[in-house]
Structures are given as structure tokens and as C-alpha cells.
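ok trying this again, last paste got cut off
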Amino acid sequence: MHVALLGLGLIGGSIARALRTQSGWRVTAWTPTGRGPAEARRAGLIDVAAGSPEEATAGADLVVLAAPPLESLELLRGLGAAGLDGHGVTVTDVVSTKRTITEVAAAAGVPFVGGHPMAGRETTGFGSSAAELFADRPWAISEPVCGGDPAAVEQLARACGAKPVRVDSAEHDRAVAAISHLPLVASVALVEAVLGSA
């Protein structure tokens, strides 16, 4: 299977590292700066460090939007405007909210299945990536889908060592807001309060 990674930070890099431990995967990657893909190519972790999103996605079976949320939305719109090179391609993502990106995919006419590996670290970037990041972790696959193939996203999750879990996108977003986003906001508010009082 040919996987195109648009973004190669902590999550995208960890996907590339995990897939390199498996056979039968071809991985291309693109980032705006090209630094992560160049490093990954030198390390033998990807097959092609692409010069553009179009080059990375040409002939791909699965396109993974592994950029930050707002950039992933722009990439998704760009894929819709440019069309995708290949029949049967599915686009997925790794961002932490599903409703908006699913709506954008539907509006752009992109065959999309929302995804969210429930894993991370306190550090970011390709240098922080690890092949074992997803081992035995849930990988949310959101519904409804927009013409993409959920089985392809499940196959990716399993190849990365994760456990795919189907979930309604609205339920997913409510749960992530409660267990991830709310604690982050509270911790930032606490730091601001403490630093502001000094």
C-alpha cells in the first residue's frame, strides 16, 4: 500500500517509523520546509521526500493529513480543488477534532475517513517520533465517512500497532474536549495566573 504523509512531525514521523517495521508499505512524505522528509529519506524511513503535495499523493492509496489542524483543513481544501491522482484513494487525518474536518472534506468532495491516534508526547517534531508511539493505543476512526474506505484507515492503524475504534464524530469531539482540551486550557490558565501574579 502506498501511503502519502502530508506532514512529518511527531505523529507523521511515528507513522513512517512504524510502517518501516512492516513489509508491503511504500511511504512518501511532504512538508512545507522539506526538512523532516529529507531527514527521514536519509534515514531510510520513507521512499520519497516529495517536493509538493501533488508529488507526494500521486498514485497513493491512502493520504494522511498529519499537519496541525488549521493546516490540515487547508491541505484538504487543496486536495479537493486539485483533484486526487488515483482511483480508490482515501484521505484521512490525525487531528484531534473530527466534525469540522469531516464537513470540509464533504464540501471539497474528497473521499475522507476521519482518524485520530490517541497517542502523543510532551515534545513535537520529527525528531521526537517513535515507531512504538501507537503500540496498543486506540486509533479513533470517525463516522460518518465521506466516501473513503474505513478499512484502509484500520489497516494503517493496525500496521502502526494501534487498535482501531469506530466512533461517532460528535461523540469523539465531546470526549476529547473533556479529557484533553479542557485540562490543557485549565493548565494554561493556572500558569498564566501564577506568572501574572509574580
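PB: full thing came through this time. The chain has a mean pLDDT of 89.
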